[in-house]
Structures are given as C-alpha cells and as structure tokens.
Amino acid sequence: MQKVKPSNSNSDLQLTPPTMNATTQAIIERLPNKPILIPAEIAAAFGMATTNPILDAIKRGRINASSVGGKFYIAREEAARYIEATAFIPDEA
Is this model's pTM higher than 0.85 or not? Predict the structure, then answer.
C-alpha cells in the first residue's frame, strides 16, 4: 500500500503553544506536585478562601473531575489546563 501525501498539507506548519504570563506560571507552580488534586488544593493555589468557584467550574463542565464517595478528584494536568484557560492576558498598550 502506498502512502499519498496530500497536496495542500499544512503538516509543515508548526503551532506554537500559547504564551503563559508570569501570574499563570506562578499559580501552576503553587499546585501540589502530585498527580491527583482535590478542589481545596486548586483553590489554595489561586489564593481563594473557599472552594466554591472550583466546585462551580466542575459543575459547569469547565474542569473535568471524577467523583468518588461524594468527593471530587482532578488530574493535575487538568487543573493546569483550567488555570491557563482562565488566565487574563491584557492587551499591550
């Protein structure tokens, strides 16, 4: 079987990941260095006094989480993705 290369291939284009600002990087670095997190650990990394915003994000589907015995568990990579997605990067003046 022959492999055919498409004529209008964009495979030569390299996508650059979005740039991460210093605040986003600092919040991600404050996450505990373990694979599974609970909402309180994510809220603490944000500096929040309550877990309500994290629980609301889970209920609205903005954070993928698993529920076991009534407690939510979130993968560290998912928490980092959420932090990056919610980052506000102001326009340059």
Answer: no
